[in-house]
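Example 4.3 (complexes with small molecules)
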Amino acid sequence: MKEYTSFSAAEINPLQSIEEWEEDVLERYPEADTPAKAKEEFRNYDKPARDTVREFYRLNHTYQTYDFVQEKRKEFLQFNRKEMKVWEAMDFLNTLVDDSDPDIELDQLQHLLQTGEAIREDGHPDWFVLTGFIHDMGKVLCLFGEPQWAVVGDTFPVGCKFSDKVVYPEFFEYNPDNGEEKYNSKYGIYEEGCGLRNVLMSWGHDEYLYHITKDYLPEPALYMIRYHSFYAQHREHAYEHLMDDHDREMFQWVKKFNPYDLYSKSPKPPVVEELRPYYENLIAKYLPEKIRL
Ligand SMILES: [Fe+2]
Ligand SMILES: [Fe+2]
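Answer. The structure with fe (ii) ion bound is encoded below.
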């Protein structure tokens, strides 16, 4: 496998901004509780604007191997980069500016506040609101120079056959694990119904934030954080065979969360300073004074 340092600038940042991935997800899943639109409908990728997304998935599916994930876990789960307050981490995340369309785009903090506020408006428990607010905090990985396809993108299990329900499955052909006998059968290194806690997922902001928060939030919150980009399961049910009953129960929460992530974007930006005290309170209630990244 290629060493991380040998990726070119074009391979590290195939997208203009990581928002492009989320826009693509929204095109694929324009409404709640439905599987992806038929390929023909959503793949109008002949338009050049979408070539970047295609390239993003080519890189993601090529390089997210079992070994790559292990390497990233070793690298990032030491949490030896920064120590900061949660709100500071959000401000840090917000330095990831998207300058592709400054008039329309909401920044990261605004997306997170809108997600949290939509959950709050529906009267859900406060830990659910907090989860909405922090769910993308793991995207700080981008600020550590990580390739976009190792921060965002649909996630999927590694160590077993890649499902053709994952978006752009044809690119898995370039993934070395696809030719490895131990990894390319239906169950690969896993057993039927072994439970997702025993399954290694492709590396990105979801898994990273899960490890940061795992000692502090209720389990449904942790499932929402850890699997919110696992569209192949929560929308397409492609990995039922690895899940156990507990996963199935917890995925009700993942499904409940997803529409807030995808459909809460409103062009009216929330007033950050008005909302800050409420969220600072929630942070203080559940999370430690400082977190390590
Ligand atoms: Fe996310
Ligand atoms: Fe999000």
